[in-house]
Amino acid sequence: MADDKILIIMTSGPDTPRRCATPFFFATLATAMDYEVTMFFTIDGTLLLKKGLAETVFPREGGKSVGEFLREAIESGVKMTACTASLELHGLTPDDLIPEARLVGGASMWQMAEESKTVLTF
Amino acid sequence: MAIIRGCNLPEDLFYYPEKHLWLKPLGGNLFRVGLTPMAGKLSGGKLNAVTIRSKNIGNEVQQGKSLATLESSKYVGPVPAPITGIVRSVNERLASEPNLVISDPYGEGWVVEMEATRWEEEKAALLTGPEGLAEYQKKLEAAGISCD
Question: Which residue of chain B has the CA closest to A25?
Answer without folding.
Answer: B76
